[in-house]
Each structure stands twice: as structure tokens, then as C-alpha cells.
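Run folding on both entries below.
>entry_1
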Amino acid sequence: MNNTAINELFSKPLSALNLGLQSFADNLAAAGAPVVHVDWKPPAGGDTAAMAALDRLAAGARVDIEAANAEAVRRILSAKPTVTGIGLALDTVPGMATDLILHSGPPVAWKDMCGPMRGAIMGGLIYEGLAGTPEEAERLASSGTIRFDSCHHHDAVGPMAGVMTAHMPVWIVENKAFGNTAYCTLNEGLGKVLRYGAYGPEVIERLRWMRDELAPVLSEALAARGQLDMKTIIAQVLQMGDEGHNRNRAGTSIVIRELAPFIVALDRPRDQLAKVLSFLNANDHFFLNLTMPSAKCTVDAAAGIEGSSIITTMARNGTEFGIRLSGLPGRWFTGPAGVVDGLYLPGYGPEHAARDIGDSVITETSGIGGFAMAAAPAIVKFVGGSPADAVNVTLRMYEITAAENDAYQIPALDFRGTPTGIDVRKVVDTGILPAINTGIAHKDPGIGMVGAGLVKPPENAFRDALIAFADRYAK
């Protein structure tokens, strides 16, 4: 640049273009200078190992990753999750046994479990009659005679602590398109419930009533009504203001409408049927334990595809957050469970909260839940934020997914399909983490739910998965 050009440059008003740190732009603006801020950051957040993995994959792979991902997406979009029945976990869930307790998230040992998971396991042992008091249950759980495993290792999912014991009733949801099945317990409601780590007498009494009366009534009504097409129902609830994870008023209402005529026709005591209908009516979250296994059997059909970078599992156990990739079957990639940013019940605050916990993030993995928040603006009354925030969350998720769902559509976005099929490469490249909305459990055993909100998963889990993926598939 010659002197004349330089003189002309500095004789005119200057505008600054700021890349990176917002504070630089803020300082210029405070000084009265025109400034445009660009929210830019290097790929993979500047992590050299992750950037190298992206470069290696871009340079060439041993398989056609795009074709593999297209097949994974095809399977997800072709899924037909269908409720076929209710059974006892011992009789239906693969590998279930009387000395086995399943939990949410990646595998975790008793000594490493968080408070609400310990509380839920203690309650499960009391429910099963293996312990008479919380103290006995704690001793038994720590003795080594009880085995623990991830629900995901047994084709199952569980909300929050996700505890499933041998004699708990479970929903049976079959993917009619591919023949795989998923299982989930029945939803207890909110507040002092087992999945949030509560184990008081009222919790155990409710669980035994659910086993002895609720499950048989629902099972008989379902047999009379016929199987429930969950894909159609989930598509409906997105049009009615639900997002399939933390807002389930429409979904629960539809299930009641589908089953109520058959419940009232059963040859059972009138007060028993009335109690079942009252319980369903009072429990807006009842539908969650149907969306979860529906999402599980949907994404499980896409697992094990050679060369696919699509995420097929996201789950949390209150200690760790973990993911699994289609092209790396059986391997968990984990990081510390996050702290939920949300709204708290009266008398509670962040100091009381456990870390992020539960398998319910399987809904986001399949393209609903937090990924469909634009369909449920009222969800912000439960998890915080504004309706505009809910829309923006969904819009960001399109940047890290491989497809738009052809069945699950969002009215507020001109019926655009929900962002579906999380590609770990895009997550790492953009630095955009999957959006998760969730409940908050008290950090101590025995207390229960204290709030709900939004949480960010740990970046290292996605970066570690990408690096392992590149080690396997890059040339």
C-alpha cells in the first residue's frame, strides 16, 4: 500500500471487524468506535489432536463415511417404534437377573455413584425385598453381591437414575421396521420418586402399586386396544406443543385417550380403575417413559454401521456423560457430567443439585427433546429461558446433524423436520454441543427432584470419540 492509500485510509471513518473474544468488541464499542463482532473460533476449539483427526478424515478414509452416514440416517428415519406390551423386567429384558440392578448412563461402580443413583438403588433393593431399611440396602449395595450395569447394555433406558430391578414392570417397544426392541420402566411422576433418588415408604408403596395394579390394568387395556404406533403419536405431540423430553402434556393426554375406553371396560373393581385414571391424569410426565424406549429402538437400528460417524447413544449417570458412535460399536467415550443451569423448586438452589443424570437424552439423540424445543415454547417455563431461546436452540442443532426428520416436524419453523442424526465430526468441527434439557435431582440420596433446566455435555467426550474414529477409519 502506497503513502497516498494510507493517507486516504486514515482520513476516513474506520470500522473494526472483531474476530474471537467478545470483550475486544465491547471495549471498542465503549470507546465509541463502530465495530462488528464475528463469533468465530478455530475448528475443534483449537484442540490440536482433534483438528488433526478432522484433517486426516478430510484427506481420505478407508470407507465412504458419507454413504455410511446416509445408511444410518435411513435407518433412523425408517424406524417404526411400536408399543407392543408390558412385562416384568426379569421376564423380558435381556440378561436381567434378581442380583442385577440396571442404571442410567455409562457403567459405573457403586463407589463412584452420585447421591441420587445410590438412593435409587437403595430404594430398588427395598422394593425387591432384599433389604428392609435404607441402612441394610446401602450395606448390601456396597457388599459386592449385587451386580450393576448400564441399561443400554440390556436394550433398555431409564430416566434420571434409571434404576431397573428384576420385578419392575417395563414397557416393551419394538421397532417394527428392523425388529429390535427397547424397554423402559413406567413413569412414577415428579417430586419424591425413585428415579430422582428418593426411597421413602411412600416411594416404595407407589412402586408396588404400579407393579400390582397399574401395570396389569394398562397391559390388559393395551391388549384390548392393540399396539400403539409411537412414531405417529410423537409426530402429533410435536404439533401440540410437546418436545418429547421435558414437556409431555400432549403425549400423556393422547395415551389416556387411546387407553381410557378400554380401561373403563375392564372387569376390575371400579375404584381400582379410577385410581389408575387419576394417576395418569395427574402425571404429565407419564409419556416420557414411552418416548425414551421409542427413541432407543430407533437409534439402535443405526448402530454398528462400518464407517458411520453418527452418534447412537448419549447418556449420563450423574458422574460421567458418555456417547457411543455407530461406527465404533460397544465403545463408550466419557467426560464429567455437567452442572444443570435451570429453575429450582422453592427452597432449593444450585448448591443442592446433583450433576447431570439420566438416559432421557436418548430423545435428543433421535432428534426430539432439546433438538425440538422450537416446537414447545412453553418448555421454557420449566427449564428457563425464553420462547426465542427455544427456537434458537433448535436452529443451532441443524449445524451438527446429518438430516431433517421427515415425520417429526416443527410448526414454528414452517413444519421443517427436526434436526436428526448427530454427526460427531460436525460437533467437534463447529464446537456446537448437543442441546439437552433435563430434570435436576438433589445431590443427596433420598430427597428427589429439585428443579429442571439445560445442560452442556463435556466437549472431551466428542473429541475423544472423533480421534478414535479417525484412528480406525482415516487412511
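>entry_2
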Amino acid sequence: MRRIVGTLLSAIVMAVLLAAAPEAAAETVRFPVATSPPTPLQERLARERGQPLAAQSPAIELTGELYRPAGAGPFPAVVSLHGCAGQPSRAVVDAAGAAYVALGYALLVVDSFGPRGVTQRCATESGAPADRIMDAYGALLYLAGLPFIDPDRIAVVGYSQGADTALGAVKRGGIETQFDRKFRAAIAYFPYCVASYGAVSVPAVILIGELDEATPARACRDMMAKRSGEGAPLRLVVYPGAHHAFTSSRLRGKPETTYGYRNEYNEAAARAAWDEERAALRAAFGR
């Protein structure tokens, strides 16, 4: 499947929803992509051979914009993952930072493409690329090591391909088993739902439009119908009349068609989805 151009962090139309929120200053930070811990077999062979395990070198160092509330903390935090078109504009990112900071949360907006010299991955990839899942864990581990962040209260939020990545990061029995540090919750805006996402290791919410042609809501309904009931709670919310990228205020009054799919802003759906996200984060963080 060709993946539609991601829109993404305008995701919450934050400047509109929280116009009174104070500005939040960003700090550009750098952190390594996570690497997989050694397997039990690798550890056993190293012991038997009397050889130390060679440390894995991260393939690349990522960049991100970090926003934090005033004070010493420790604060809950959110890792934000963009879609297949890459990082949104700085104005959109700053608006998102202000909105999360107003809730008392830190926000780390991860740029997966810039450090790799990638412009977009919309026509070439679908699903949750493994390198981006490791980006998410790199961000989690980086935040968990900061003195003003509560390492046990970090959630992941993703949009389109970033939403696939967020769900892939918390897929029960998946990559999450390789890390001692875990996300507390996951929020996925218009992901492409596949059966394997149906079992999650932490509470998760999927927010999608009824008219989404790129990432169909029916695929999410089918996934939910096939769930075994194992794992953490997974909630699906479908917004009537909403297309793909319904949160992108950039599309206000000027919908786009990309790869044959319609992208269109829907203010009612965007507001309702932001309310759902805030409720999910409050439940996860206890504040």
C-alpha cells in the first residue's frame, strides 16, 4: 500500500484549542537511536567463550525539540512521532509544545528523517518501520535519563506512519519485550490497523476518521473484532465525516488529495480527539 503524505503534529490544532496557553521554549536535543539488548543466546555464548559482549553502536543520532514546564519536576512526558512526510513546521511544533506544557507535561518531538537525510517515506513504506520503532525507544530512554522527567510516566503519540510506529512500539510480545523501560500509554492518530496491533502491552487509543481512505476505519474495526482480549485495554474512536489528517489545521479550508486519498481538516473531530487524548494521558499519568 502506498502511504499517504503524513500531516502530523498540527495534530491537535493546539493553537486553536489552547490559544491562551503560555509560549513554551524549545531546546534542540540529540540522542541515539535505541539498540536491541543482547539476546540470552548471545550472553550465554559470550560467557562460554570468556569474551565480553561487544557493545552495539547506534546507527545514527537523532534530533528532537524538547519542551518542559517550569520547575524542577519530575514531569510526565510525551514522545511525539511525525508521519511519513516528516517533521511539520516549527510553528506547529511550538504550538504543540505549548499545549502539552500547559497540561504540565514535557514533550519531545522526534525528527526521524532529518538526521537520516530523508525527505519523506510516503510512497515507499507502509506499516511501522523497525528503525522508527527504535527511534521511539531512543526517545523514551533519553527522557527517562533526564532528572526533571518521571521515567515511569512517559507516553507515545503518533500520527499516520508515526501512529503505526507508536502501536508497533507497544505491541504485546514485540520489541517492547527487549527493553526494561516501558511506555505508559500510546495514542495513535489515523494509523493503518493490522491484526498484530490488536494486542497491546499498555493502554492505547486509536483516533481515526470514518471517511479515511488512506488508513480505513474499517480495518481498525476488523482488528478490534479479532482481538483475543489479551493485553492492555485498547480503545477505538471513529469520527463521523472525518477524513485522513483531520487534525491538520494547515488544511483548514483547503483539503488535498495525495496518492488518490483525501486529506481534510475537521475541527469538530480534532477537538474531540484532543479531548480523548487528554483523558487518556490523565488516566495514564494520574494527573
